[in-house]
Design brief:
The protein has about 180 residues and is an all-beta fold. It is built from no helices and eleven strands. The model has no long low-confidence stretch (mean pLDDT about 90).
Length: about 180
């Protein structure tokens, strides 16, 4: 299940993403995964905007119980479809063994949208989040979404996501891919 709600005005852009997934083995559900992300962007007459974001992930697929993120930064609009974000975030993770880790990270992202055909767009987003205290500790991800617009309010998306964690939880792989 994937849901995205956007609410935009002349001075504020905001969105909320909610995703749930489950894994099954022999038709028996073995685990659930949940992801929630909200972002509030305060626009102004320049190409620099302030933004605040919050995120909660519960993902046993990637061997962590939960990951909570809270952050703020600046979004730079290069044009109507291309954005760069720079900010600071605080991250609170708990793995499946109950080990908790709090990390402050620098946050950078790049996002761009390409029109492939009428009603078909490709959205690419890349994130890089190094720890402020340890340059060997970083997370990176690439998200690609092929969006088919059915009408003004409904679209169908095919998503490919790739995640990398230089210091993943115990027993977890450094890299994980997801198709939805």
């Amino acid at each position: 299940f994937n849901l995205r709600i956007d609410k935009n005005t002349e001075n504020i852009e905001s969105f909320l993403i909610a995703q749930t997934s489950e894994r099954k083995k022999n038709e028996i559900k073995t685990s659930d995964s949940n992801f929630f992300h909200g972002r509030l962007i305060f626009l102004n007459k320049t190409r620099f905007s302030s933004e605040f974001f919050a995120q909660r992930s519960e993902n046993p697929f990637r061997t962590y119980f939960q990951r909570d993120v809270l952050g703020f930064g600046t979004r730079i609009s290069l044009d109507d479809l291309t954005k760069i974000g720079i900010g600071i975030l605080t991250e609170d993770e708990e793995d499946l063994q109950g080990v908790e880790l709090n990390t402050e990270r620098f946050s950078m992202y790049f996002t761009d949208q390409y029109s492939l055909a009428e009603n078909v767009d490709l959205l690419l987003t890349a994130y890089f989040q190094p720890s402020l205290n340890d340059t060997d500790d970083y997370k990176a991800s690439i998200l690609a979404s092929l969006n088919f617009s059915v009408n003004e309010n409904v679209s169908i998306s095919l998503q490919l996501n790739s995640f990398y964690d230089s210091r993943p939880p115990q027993f977890a792989e450094n890299q994980d891919e997801q198709l939805s």
